[in-house]
Write a structure and sequence with these properties.
Number of strands of chain B: 9
Largest sheet of chain B: 9 strands, mixed
Largest sheet of chain A: 3 strands, antiparallel
Shape of chain B: globular
Structural class of chain B: alpha/beta
Strand content of chain B: 5-15%
CATH architecture of chain A: Orthogonal Bundle
Order of helices and strands of chain B: EHEHEHEHHEHEHHHEEEHHHHHH
Number of helices of chain A: 4
CATH superfamily of chain A: Coenzyme PQQ synthesis protein D (PqqD)
Oligomer: heterodimer
CATH class of chain A: Mainly Alpha
Distance between the termini of chain A: 16 Å
Helix content of chain A: 25-40%
Number of strands of chain A: 5
Helix content of chain B: 25-40%
Amino acid sequence: MNDAVRGDRQPGEASGVQPAARPKVSSKFRLQWEEAQGAWVLLYPEGMVRLNASAGEIMKRCDGRRTVDELVAELEQAFDASGLQGEVTNFLDMARKQHWIEV
Amino acid sequence: MNASAQPSAAAIGPPLWLLAEITYRCPLHCAFCYNPTDFAATTDELGTEEWLRVLREARAAGSVQCAFSGGEPLARDDLEVLVAEARRLGFYTNLLTSGVGLTEARAAALKEAGLDHIQLSFQDSTRELNDFLSHTRTFDLKQRVAAMIKANGWPMVMNCVIHRLNIDYIENIIDMAVELGAEYLELANSQYYSWALLNRDQLLPSREQVERAERITNERRERYGDRIRIFFVVPDYFETRPKKCMNGWGSVFLTVTPDGTALPCHTAKMLPGLAFPNVREMGVREIWYESEGFNRFRGDDWMQEPCRSCPEKDKDRGGCRCQAYMLAGDAAAADPVCDKSPAHHRVLEAVDLAQRPLQSATRALPLVFRGPAESRRLIEQSRNAVAP
């Protein structure tokens, strides 16, 4: 644990999540769909983060296999949108700072 | 029930948090325990099948966090069965334990069952204080349990109830948590209900003690940085606005006690004149949305002045109903922690008393330690008190 946290502080964090990175939901959190709340949530010891719709769509694709570029392309196709790169990267940067994802 | 006077089911969120108090049995004797002082009157614990049904009903009603607590939950040998079903249903499963009774075999079985998290508590630190500080038996036990938690890949969360008798050693407590490899440490100042209320004059720290403890905690946070996250919960007696108790009555939390009583908070059973349903007689969904006990303090129709016209009423929901009952004699009153409450002086008196040295004559009462014999004595005492 301590190593992981220190690892998050290594140089590189400042530069943000890179397009070729393969983000993965952190082992400290569990991501699941909650029907009663109509939302994806992140569960952790005695706590919960309720994700909004777009955050949920991004997080559920953070499986350690897709790259950020692939994730963006998939979302643009699924929602018939373009230019999502900036929004997705900003979210992933925040998610990493919150330790929700590992890169 | 008058449907128009109550918030509609649509406006009431699901019972996201289920606190399953599966037993009052406990090997410890904490003087600050929040279990009811008459817990010894509970003899008919819910059985395994009943708890499994409660878990299924709560999950279907939208519960997602489940904490197994007590008493000491490890005192039940079907804990693993309950955890496995909770996990299978999609709960995030938490075990709140002192670690007493956790063997390698049980830890492995709990891991197999899918337990997500163990919160390890220093629950008996008044009695344990000496070896606690000298790093002997307590440290050995917690170290053994901490190693099991790590070996099973669980997050390492420690909890220590803070009070007058241990608050001056807060640096030792923090350093020990770091030494044990805790990722999170909750320094929870004792709240004054049940056993803790009986012992309040001995347990409530002075203002100077609280200020020093906060200062030391901040220094340690700087020193340890990301190695540990430390939460320091200030005792509400030192505040001028009450806590938003349970995030609002019947808004998030559902407690089920060992005998199946369903409560909006773990101490609400003390409130007079309120019928709380039992899971043996009513389903969880009906309990949450329909029962009188859960609807009683929803919305704000129940509020009196100064709450009713208070601009902050949505922020703190009038504070804690139990504290209002205990200190102002009326569960619908403002929580006397609030300095707008006509009973705020009761809180100030307790705080003033805490400024005096512990040895003074008014404070010479011995601590009352939680235990079945003591509980039966208190039940007897209250019977005699109400007899003519």
